[in-house]
Amino acid sequence: MKELSFDVVVLGAGGAGVGAALAARAEGATVAIVERLDRSGGILNQCIHDGFGLHRYKEALTGPEFAARLNTEAKLGSDPGLTLLTGRFVRDIDPEARRLILVSESGLEAVTCKALVYAAGARERPFGSLLIPGDRVSGIFTAGVAQRLVNLDNRLPGTRALILGSGDIGLIMARRLTLEGIEVRAVLERLPYPGGLERNLAQCLHDFDIPLLLSTTVAEVRGKGRLEEVVTVQVDENHNPIKGTERSFAVDTLVLSVGLVPSTTPVMDLVTVDPRSRGVVVDAIMGTNRDWVFAAGNCTVIYDLVDYVTDEGIVAGRSAARFARGEPRPERLPIVRGRDVGVMNPSLWCPGQDLTLFLRPARPFAKARWVVRQGEGSSAAIIRETKAEILTPGEMERLKIPAAKLDPSKPLTVEVVPDA
Ligand SMILES: Cc1cc2nc3c(=O)[nH]c(=O)nc-3n(C[C@H](O)[C@H](O)[C@H](O)COP(=O)(O)OP(=O)(O)OC[C@H]3O[C@@H](n4cnc5c(N)ncnc54)[C@H](O)[C@@H]3O)c2cc1C
Predict the structure, then answer these.
(1) How many CB atoms are located within 10 Å of the residue 218 CB?
(2) Within its chain, how far is the Cα of 301 from the centroid?
(3) Which terminal CB of the chain, N or C, has fewer other CB atoms within 10 Å?
(4) What average pLDDT is seen over the chain?
């Protein structure tokens, strides 16, 4: 078996992985990125709409343009200290030897490292997980599969479609399918509020007169071989169907955009995974509970923007390179989840290190603030807060707290404070 060895190995060549490689190289480490596909970029390659890079490059780029920019920044392909191993699937990780077993068309290979950055992205929730009754028909696609068919394979999934799920991917696919001549009858959302960014609601639905049906889900799918009819139903606040609100749509395509789940399979037995978010638990320097393993991107929590994913990859790559050259890992302390915190990443902070928090509220607020406090009870002091504004789970907030503002002797709490 072919054996290779590097200071830092990065698993996954999406925005997080290439960001990590770039930073690890800047620290002087030898780096390899292992990627199962035939090129770098990850999910960016099939996202041909614009809106990527507004923070990092101050431009609205398409996904492939963002990936190309990042490759250039990382000198991918021209830096002899950075090796991209494509067409290799990481099947196993041996923690004792810090050794990854790769499967490729040419057989098995092994790569050892001093530190690993895990950046395997996310997977889509499949149809089977929704337990929707009806006929077992073709014509039901996850949004990512439909996007790949249209954008990379130049094939149309059908002629008339419904989309289930109003997160950003569902909204973007509603517009994409419309532009390709498919009649998108509606986007359905089980919750009483939309899941995606405000800008995507305006640009993908309102601009194309596509109805958004809130508090509505799929009750049944019908057809012989191919999907012919979808029955929808309205739901109450507990997501129970409301009798008498059923509606029938004659469509041949149902696109599911019902959430991404962090990919953790190769590291399930290696690191702590949050049972709530199902992402790898990380601290402020993107370290996991295993000292030589770091993680970044959608495998830790599902981000809105690739700019943030890349920034977190950079933190992980830098930390991995420093660990690989012998620097000890910093102390880790839990961050207390206060009222109405839905998503919070990282969930641990490190005294002496800057902290960047990524947050989503548990529910929408007409006017509320993010508040970060240190201390206990009435003596707790606010060390960071945002302006009062609309907060929704669809919009991720980024809060940066410099190390100098953090007191290692006091507990740190994050919460949502509603304003009257
Ligand atoms: C439809 C859609 C629209 C979006 N729109 C925007 C937008 O407008 N603006 C914006 O900023 N962001 C947008 N995003 C979000 C952004 O693109 C993603 O959050 C980001 O690209 C994810 O990067 P990642 O590196 O975490 O994961 P990925 O890009 O998924 O990369 C993970 C990589 O790991 C590889 N991998 C996984 N497991 C293995 C294994 N075992 N062995 C080898 N390789 C493995 C995968 O093949 C993949 O290449 C959108 C995302 C989607 C899906």
Answers:
(1) 23
(2) 6
(3) C
(4) 96
What domains, with CATH codes, occur in the chain? 2-123+261-329 (3.50.50.60), 126-258 (3.50.50.60), 335-418 (2.60.40)
- Of all helices (H) and strands (E), which one includes residue 171? helix 168-179
The two tokens of residue 153 are 């394979």
Percent with pLDDT over 70 in the chain: 100
Type of residue numbered 163:
I
Q: Which of 313, 324, 321, 308 is nearest to 286 (CA)?
A: 313
CA 23–ligand 1 middle distance (angstroms) = 19
Statement: residue 420 has pLDDT above 80? no
At residue 241's C-alpha, the angle toward residues 366 and 341, to 5°, is 35
Q: Whose CA is nearest to atom 48 of ligand 1?
A: 42
CB-defined site of ligand 1, < 6 Å: 11-17, 34-37, 42-44, 47, 51-52, 89-90, 119-121, 147, 168-169, 172, 263, 266, 297-298, 303, 305-307, 309
pLDDT in tens, 271-328: 999 998 999 999 999 999 999 999 999 999 999 999 999 999 999 999 999 999 999 9
Which two three-digit tokens encode residue 69? Answer: 């920019």
* pLDDT band per the 50, 70, 90 thresholds, residue 255: very high
pLDDT in tens, 181-229: 999 999 999 999 999 988 899 999 999 999 999 999 999 999 999 999 9
Q: Look up residue 210 and give its DSSP letter.
A: -
Residue 77 region, left (φ>0) first, then alpha (ψ -120 to 50), else beta? left
Q: Give the atom of ligand 1 at the shortest distance from the alpha carbon of 12.
A: 34
CA angle (21 as vertex; 83, 108 as ends), nearest 5: 45
pTM, two decimals, is: 0.94
The ligand 1 atom nearest the CA atom of 308: 11
Which residue's entry shows tokens 């194309």? 208
Query: pLDDT tens digits, residue range 124-134?
Result: 998 888 889 99
